[in-house]
Design a protein that fits this description.
globular, mainly alpha, 2 domains
Length: about 325
């Protein structure tokens, strides 16, 4: 709601969403009222885009709002159209937003889609081709991000091979990354004890990789500063989890929102983690688990180290890019 005071388009988005949620809850066909509210959101976005004093953040928030509304209405085609329009707009702009609050909203809302944006834009090995052929500019960006993810995984692989015993020792004294920490428990649980609940799994499917990717990127940033500052940061994060009632049974989304707001002025890391997350979502589940274990073992060494090779890492990247060609 605080964003709505800065961007009035969000008020109309909330109204449209509430109307469609009501229709779904009452098991009603989509009402003329809901269609009218949603159409108004789309009109406001078009008006803003055509304005001589266009506010790009209002456009982005309006498109996100329309996508949420489409998600509730199960309008896969229109959802895909808006998803493609949003990626194109962000590409032209060069970055989603320089307002940290808008970026936190952008990333957190994007995590809510789960696999659906990736499937709408590119299709997947499990869901089949997208409704419309992929945009070549989207494919180009995706392949660049895929290469970044492969490089990240290769770095994690090399680090484990070179210093697995050192990792175990150093992490055992870290309040954030030791085997009994809150983060370790939340991050390892879906990998060691996968849920059979469809809705819980659908909700966590993007949140869980994002959490591991974000903390891995943060850990890389911390490795370039003094050990004392790094230790203070890890202690502070671990303490914050307790004061914010994040427990070992919490969902990944709880930590994600905390990280997005705590580091909202460092939104480049969140955006990169989101892009890498979307590449992972094109992998088959058992291969995605393998990639996540490789990254997570670098943070919280638990059990036997991952049995992966460089060739396997390259194969993971190939699978994520399956069917995507320039």
């Amino acid at each position: 709601m605080p964003l709505a005071s800065k961007f009035p388009v969000l008020i109309q988005c909330f109204i449209s969403l509430a109307s469609r949620v009501f229709d779904r809850k009452e098991a009603l066909p989509e009402s003329p009222r809901s269609i009218r509210y949603h159409t108004r959101v789309v009109q406001l976005v078009h008006q803003e885009m055509q304005s001589s004093e266009r506010d790009d953040d209002s456009v982005i928030l309006g498109i996100l709002g329309a996508m949420v509304s489409n998600l509730v209405a199960r309008s896969r085609l229109e959802f895909g159209i808006h998803a493609r329009g949003l990626t194109n707009f962000v590409r032209i702009r060069g970055y989603p937003s320089y307002d940290p609050d808008v970026m936190a909203h952008y990333v957190s809302t994007s995590l809510m889609w789960g696999c659906q944006v990736v499937e709408a834009l590119f299709g997947s090995p499990t869901s089949g081709p997208p409704v419309q052929p992929p945009c070549q500019d989207d494919v180009s960006e995706f392949l660049v991000t895929k290469n970044t993810l492969v490089a990240l995984l290769l770095s994690a692989q090399a680090h484990i091979e070179a210093s697995s015993s050192v990792l175990r020792t150093s992490r055992s004294t870290s309040p954030l990354f030791n085997s009994n920490s809150i983060f370790s428990s939340i991050a390892w649980r879906p990998l060691l004890h996968p849920t059979t609940n469809f809705w819980k799994k659908a909700f966590e499917i993007a949140h869980h990789p994002f959490l591991i990717l974000y903390l891995y990127l943060l850990d890389q940033d911390l490795s370039s500063i003094s050990p004392s500052i790094r230790s203070e940061t890890e202690t502070s994060l671990s303490s914050d989890f307790l004061t914010r009632n994040i427990t070992k049974t919490s969902h990944c989304a709880c930590i994600n929102w905390y990280l997005l707001t705590k580091y909202k002025w460092e939104s480049e890391r969140a955006y990169l983690a989101l892009q890498l997350d979307q590449v992972m979502l094109r992998m088959r589940e058992h291969h995605r688990v393998l990639a996540l274990k490789l990254l997570l073992w670098n943070l919280c060494p638990f059990g036997d180290k991952p049995d992966t090779t460089r060739e396997m890492v390259f194969a993971l990247g190939d699978e994520a890019a399956d069917g995507l060609r320039l």
